[in-house]
Each structure stands twice: as structure tokens, then as C-alpha cells.
Amino acid sequence: MTTSQPMEMSRLARILTRLGWVLVVPFFFVAVKILREYERGVIFRLGRLVGTRGPGLFLIIPFVENMQKIDLRVITLDVPSQEIITRDNVTVKVDAVIYFRIMNPEDAVVKVENWFRATALIAQTTLRSTIGQSELDELLAQREDINKRLQVSIDEATEPWGVKVSMVEVRDVLLAPEMVRTIARQAEAERERRAKVIHAEGEFQAAERLAEAGRIIAASPGTLQLRYLQTLTEITTERTNTLVFPIPIDLLQALTKGIAASSTD
């Protein structure tokens, strides 16, 4: 292509542009455009991108310029339920919701054919990939970490298209009935284990207290007798009870010796 050809094309474009401005008056209702606050218009002049306009009232050149309207509001996308095999070979059904918006209208129009469909497909693919790299326990207990990983991965993929992913939420995780019963048995066994550990800790603490009490009583023999009498008092508060208490051997020996001495006299 010689240098004269670009100059001719540029001259032709200027001529058509001037002609288009002339046609603005008779085709005023075609040329005038009004966009809302959340809308932007990507303008093409003879097939070339010339920029973004809006919001408000502006004019385009009839038959020379055309506009593609872009909505800048946050869009909510429901990702259909995906049947995925986790890293520990458990089949689950997972669905999610994605919140995103267009940050660069020009990239959304020029760099991808259908930005909404492309974002939906990349979201499904990323969801399957991320869940497939996670274990079931991680999926159930660390939902926030998985949501963050999904948001970062999808946002990196859609950034060249001018799309910003602000949040991703995994909503439901559905398991097979057999796996639900298995998890229930596991949870029940875990609760029983905790109960046994707590009971053993209680027995250990009680034994420590009893050993400490035994050391204190051993240091003062009279304390044992006082404790013995106090226990008898607590038992005899109920008159319907029959009380049987042991008699010290020393007392019996003293009685037998006194009886023997009186009989010899």
C-alpha cells in the first residue's frame, strides 16, 4: 500500500464526517442519544473505535457513527449446579452466585464477542477446577477461603475484557445420601470421643483433689476423726435411714479388757 492510499482514506473519512454532520438536522431524532447515569455508549465511526460517551444527552453522526450501549451496574449471575469430584474422590453437587460489573466498556465490546456469556462460562470452568482441587472437609469447613480463591481466579481471567468480579459465593453443597449418613456417624463418634475425654479429665482432677485432701488430713490425725463425725451427722439427718457405722478396734479392745478384769475380781 502506497502512502497516497492512507491519505485518500483519511480524506474520504473527513468528507463523510462533514456530510454526516450536515445530515444531523434532518435526521435529528436518529442522531440524538440519551443515556442514563449507569449507562455508557461505545462509539464506532466507520468501524473504528473513537471512544465512550455518556451519561446524558449527546449527538452521533447519522450513517457514519453507531453506538453500542453498555450497562455499568452490578450483575448477579447464578452458576448452574455442577457435579464435581473432590480431591478425596467424593462426588458433590455445587452451585454458586457471582457478582460482577463492567469497568471498561471499550474492552468489553472490542476484546470479547459476548462478555456476559464468556464470564458465565469461565465461572463454571473455574468452579469445577477449584472444587476439584479441594477436599470435602475443606469445602464444608473453609467456605470463605474457597470463595476468595474463586473470586481471584475468575477476576484474573475476566480482567482483559474489562469485567471486574467483586464477589463469589458458593451456596449449596449437596452430597449423596450414603455420604450424609457416613458424615453423621463420624460426627457422632467424634462427640462420643469428646465426652470420654472430658469424663477422663474430670476423674483425673478429682483424683488430684482427693490426693491433696489426703495429704492435708495425714498431717493432722484429729482432722480425720472430725471428718468422720461430720459424715455421721450428715447421714443421720434423714430419720428413715438405717445407720450402720463401724466401731474402732481400739475401743472394743478396751471394753473386753475391762470386762475381763471385772470377772476376775
Compact overview of the structure:
The protein has 265 residues and is α+β, with helices and mostly antiparallel strands. The protein has helices at 4-22, 28-31, 105-110, 115-132, 136-141, 143-158, 177-219, 221-235, 249-264; strands at residues 32-35, 39-45, 48-53, 56-59, 65-71, 75-85, 91-102, 163-175.
Account of the protein in words:
With 265 residues, the chain is of the alpha+beta class. It folds into 3 domains: 8-71, no CATH class; 75-175, Band 7 domain (Tetrahydropterin Synthase, Chain A, 2-Layer Sandwich), CATH 3.30.479.30; 178-224. Helices cover 54% and strands 24% of the residues. The chain contains 9 helices and 8 strands. It has helices spanning 4-22, 28-31, 105-110, 115-132, 136-141, 143-158, 177-219, 221-235, 249-264; strands at residues 32-35, 39-45, 48-53, 56-59, 65-71, 75-85, 91-102, 163-175. Helix 4 (115-132) runs antiparallel to helix 6. The longest helix has 43 residues, at 177-219. The protein is rod-shaped. The model has no long low-confidence stretch (mean pLDDT 81).
Number of helices: 9
Q: What's the CATH superfamily of the largest domain, by name?
A: Band 7 domain
Query: What is the CATH topology descriptor of the largest domain?
Result: Tetrahydropterin Synthase, Chain A
Low-confidence parts: none
* Biggest sheet architecture: 3 strands, antiparallel
Mean pLDDT: 81
| Global geometry | rod-shaped
N-end to C-end Cα span: 153 Å
Q: What is the count of β-strands?
A: 8
Number of domains: 3
Helix content: 40-55%
